[in-house]
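User: Just a sanity check before I run the rest of the batch. Below are the structure tokens for the first item. I only need the designed sequence back.
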């Protein structure tokens, strides 16, 4: 059972999604979570649920043991530099969910030996369906186990080398948008062949969810499941071949590559 108090520094979309996920999972009670933001009116929903909301980052840090940094990349160094005296290496675990900020960058801010984690979740964290990639510096086995358990409440957690964190951002975080774009296109196709928009969207979304569960629960390769529905001279193989002729797979691969090149440039 979690006994630590958690401060989320930066109550934007991702920060509030993490708070919501921790509450829904039961990993943390409302009185164990503090969320900070300059504009507190944006946190009213969390406040009504019993979460502490404040614009005082230093106070939130001092009164918590686990510090989740969910600031914008452009101001994270400045904000943390102002707060570095509030961190205690004997008390705190720092978890950054900020894109593009490396462990060495974070450790140079604190000027002390403090366990630091980088986590890359996606927006499905709000409904406990994220994939979160983790790496760390200066953390004990118990601290690593705790952080993994925390994010396991919010989906699945995969430890990776930090050198793969940019790739994880593209495949896992940007990947939400890629999957949604497929669902939107499938919905449009469904409308074209006769469904109303709401029904087409429901069928497309549930079909994608079912396809993902076949792979996750069955531990199978996608082609194994594709083979089950591609009968000789059937409609599935005709559709797949037409999509491939139009560049379906190559377009997706090139898009992932383009996103990766952008993030590392």
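Assistant: Here's the designed sequence for the first item:
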């Amino acid at each position: 059972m979690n006994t630590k108090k958690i401060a989320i520094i930066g109550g934007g979309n991702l920060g509030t999604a993490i708070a919501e996920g921790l509450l829904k999972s039961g990993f943390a009670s409302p009185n164990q979570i503090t969320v900070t933001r300059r504009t507190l009116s944006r946190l009213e929903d969390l406040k009504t649920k019993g979460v502490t909301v404040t614009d005082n980052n230093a106070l939130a840090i001092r009164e918590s043991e686990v510090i989740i940094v969910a600031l914008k990349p452009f101001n994270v160094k400045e904000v943390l530099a102002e707060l570095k005296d509030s961190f205690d290496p004997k008390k705190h675990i720092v978890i950054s969910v900020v894109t593009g900020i490396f462990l060495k960058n974070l450790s140079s801010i604190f000027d002390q030996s403090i366990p630091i984690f980088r986590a890359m979740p996606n927006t499905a964290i709000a409904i406990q369906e994220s994939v979160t990639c983790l790496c760390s510096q200066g953390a004990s086995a118990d601290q690593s186990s705790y952080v993994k358990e925390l994010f396991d409440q919010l989906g699945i957690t995969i430890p990776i080398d930090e050198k793969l964190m940019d790739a994880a951002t593209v495949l896992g975080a940007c990947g939400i948008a890629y999957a949604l774009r497929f669902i939107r296109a499938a919905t449009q196709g469904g409308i074209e062949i006769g469904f109303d928009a709401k029904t087409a969207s429901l069928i497309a979304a549930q079909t994608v969810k079912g396809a993902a569960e076949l792979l996750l629960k069955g531990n199978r390769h996608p082609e194994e499941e594709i083979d089950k529905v591609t009968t000789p001279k059937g409609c599935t193989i005709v559709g797949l071949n037409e999509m491939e002729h139009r560049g379906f797979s190559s377009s997706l691969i090139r898009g992932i590559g383009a996103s990766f090149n952008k993030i590392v440039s």
